[in-house]
Amino acid sequence: MISKKNRITGIGAVCFFSFLIIFLLVFSKRLILKFARNELLSRGISASEIIFELPLNFFLTDVTFDENSFFCGGNAETVQFSLSITDPRKLKSLSIENFVLPIRASSKNGVKTEKLSQIDRFPGELTLRNGVFLFSGKHFDLDSLKMKKEKSYIKGYISSNGLMLYMEIRDSCGIANFVAESKDTLSFSELLEIRDFSLRGQISGWNFKGVFKGVMLIPALQNSCSNIDDSVYFNFQNSSPEFQIPGLGAKMTFEENLIVISLEDLYLPVKELSNLEVVDYKFSGKLKVKFEDGTAVFEADSIKLNDIRLFSKFLCSDTLTFSEILIPDAFFHVNFSDRWVFIENLVLALGNSDIKITSFFKFSDSSSIHIELSADSVYVSDLIDFTPKELLPNIQGIRGGGYFDLSAVFDYTRCFPESTDFRINSNFHGVEIYYLGSKLDIDSLSRPFSATVRIGSSQGEKIFLGPQNPNFVPLANLPKSLIGAVIVCEDGSFFSHRGFSQFHIRRAMRENLSAGRYISGGSTITMQLARNLFLSDERSLSRKLEEAVLTWQLEHHLSKNRILELYLNIIEFGPNIRGIQEASRIYFGIDASELNPLQASYFASIIPNPKRYYRLHYQTGGISAYWQEKIVKIMKLELDRSYIDSTQFDSFSSLVLEFTQKE
Fold first, then answer.
1. Alpha carbon separation from 33 to 20, 70, 85 (Å, rounded)
2. What is the 3-state secondary structure (H, E, C) of 74-113?
3. How far is C-alpha 16 from the geometric centre of its chain's CA atoms?
4. Average pLDDT, integer, range 315-324
5. Using CA atoms, how far apart are residues 321 and 308, in angstroms rounded to an integer?
6. What is the band of 15 on the pLDDT scale with cuts at 50, 70, 90?
């Protein structure tokens, strides 16, 4: 039995030791908190509140990191970390929530940061939630990151904006082997997206070497994509981190809010764009990309495109080849969210000639386009050398001389196509064509000649344009009313222009854009003659270019009357009906010289689509009231321009057009 005295002594001892333990805990906790706060401050970390729990757990709120800290600045709402009891210098775990942290690679102003490959300094468990990383002026959102260290490797994942990336880092004799892969899409705005990718390699210090596999997409180019399987190299040691893909000849340097891209003979397969297939190319040069308020600002320096091969039926029937395109200078802005491009300046070099382009494109329901083009002293020889031979199949070997100055403006708004505008001004200085190739001889057109016409005939129809052809009618034998009707319908400024009419081009653009399809070509009479004599009815850039060259040559070598004479004797007026003489005999049973103003106006009215109107009118036995009114309006225009007089108008405007039908 314990004595009363011993019981009192025992209770006192328990109270003493209890008080001592409580005193030590309180005192040591305060001491540890004071020590922790000072230690954190010495490392550039401050917090409004620090809570300590046994064994060595710390909770920080409203945390700020200065540039001398491990995180090189930034802040966090909460930070939690636990230290190892056996080695308090080591982090057992670290958790940071609701943070903004800059990332800086190497030393700056004497501040040293840890190397990527120092796995031994990595906490046993790292958790990040709801934060933003700042890197070279750009921000990267992070939903969560969880990494766990087990002996010699670190394993975990990163989740950001719907992207889940799995990572593993293993330490092998001081070299960190890195593996990362994801089936999701990593988006860099509409400039670039990468999906189904993996990255494997080694980290040494602040360098990474490895292999990247994945699919690269460019959403702005209708999701044009390329499969990448190539070696890569990262260098974060310098103040401007560097990224290289040696196999592609690509290098990127990250500076403050700026990316510098250097390319050498780059080729990436490009998805077919709006019926345009990019078969091959090589891209070299330097691009600087700066991001400002959601807009990417591009500055190009010495861009070179070599061995370009393109195919589109709207260009020509063959694959186009450009040996070289030089862009010595370019400055443009791209806004992917609002979908617009502003080319502030782009210089295209053609030999000794420079073409300067300024334009604005907006891609939306209210799409708009504005293009300004200016060029001083463009040499004809440079332009010919630049143009792929596939674009000029009928005038191979063309040669010319002289130079010209050019300025042009084009404006278009989708919601108001009727306002489409096109203006062009040019000054020619000794410009001439010496040779059009072995297929063509413009000088021969001033005398009787034979032509093979491909329009309206798949095999080509041979027609002689001269007195030996019984259906050929000299212009002097044709009634003035026919000439007037054709002029007012097809080319009102025929006798004043030099082969081209901006009014015709502008009107055709407005009609086509308003209709949403091709309905008018804007061709003058001379352009139509060039097409009928030498070309086909193919709708392509190739035909338009050749048509332009040949039109200019026709205007320089032939008189207006000769052009009109050839035109009326060669164009179609129905299926297998060529020339005005044959048409007059079939439709009205008379010679072309006998046509009256009503009949002449009818022929002028069907020139745009003679085969269709042959079926609608001639084969049905007559024209509609609407078409009757149409040809009377043509006669009124002739009257206003003195091609017919009032007596002729009064006499024939009241008559109903009648055809002579075959028995």
1. 19, 20, 16
2. CEEEEEEEEECCCCCCCEEEEEEEEEEEECCCCCECCECC
3. 83
4. 90
5. 6
6. low
DSSP-derived secondary structure for 445-494: GGS-EEEEE-TT-SS-EEEEESTTSTT---GGGS-HHHHHHHHHHH-TTT
Please answer whether residues 41 and 33 qualify as being in contact, where contact means their C-beta atoms are separated by less than 8 angstroms: no
**Which pair of structure tokens corresponds to residue 629?**
């009114």
Task: Give me the phi and psi of 454, to 5 degrees please.
Answer: -100, -15
Closest CA to 292 of 430, 434, 138, 410: 138
Reported pTM: 0.74
Q: For residue 332, give every residue at least 6 positions away whose Cβ sits within 8 Å of its Cβ, in sequence order, or none.
A: 297, 298, 341, 342, 343, 344, 345, 346
CA distance 378 to 408: 14
Angle in degrees, 0-180, between the axes of helices 525-534 and 480-490, rounded to the nearest 10: 90
Please answer whether residues 597 and 649 qualify as being in contact, where contact means their C-beta atoms are separated by less than 8 angstroms: yes
Contact yes or no for 565/447 (Cβ under 8 A): no
Is 333 or 458 the better-scoring residue by pLDDT? 333
Confidence of residue 662 (pLDDT cuts 50, 70, 90): low
Find tokens 């909460």 and name the residue.
Answer: 78
Which amino acid is it at 581?
Answer: Q
Residue 328's SS3 state is strand
Assign 311 to helix, strand or coil: strand
Output the average pLDDT for the chain: 84
Higher pLDDT, 268 or 130: 130
Distances (CA, A) of 152 to 23, 118, 168, 311: 42, 11, 11, 55
Cα(295)–Cα(57) distance, integer angstroms: 45
pLDDT grade, residue 104 (50/70/90)?
low
pLDDT score recorded for residue 24? 46
Structure tokens at 288: 């600087």
Instruction: Write the pLDDT tens digit of every residue in 495-530.
Output: 998 888 888 888 888 887 777 776 776 789 999 999
Phi, psi of 602 (to 5 degrees): -65, -45
| Band of residue 111 on the pLDDT scale cut at 50, 70, 90 | very low
In whole angstroms, what is the distance from residue 69 CA to residue 154 CA?
23
436 CB neighbour count, 10 Å cutoff: 22
Q: How confident is the model at residue 561 (pLDDT cuts 50, 70, 90)?
A: very high
**Residue whose entry in the numeric block shows the structure tokens 């000029």:** 392
529 in Cβ contact with 559 (< 8 Å): no
Q: What angle do CA 36, 104, 207 make, to 5 degrees?
A: 115
Give the separation between CA 305 and CA 320, rounded to whole angstroms.
14
Residue 374 neighbours by CB distance under 10 Å: 15
Q: Which pLDDT belongs to residue 6?
A: 52
Residue 385 φ then ψ, to 5°: -65, -35
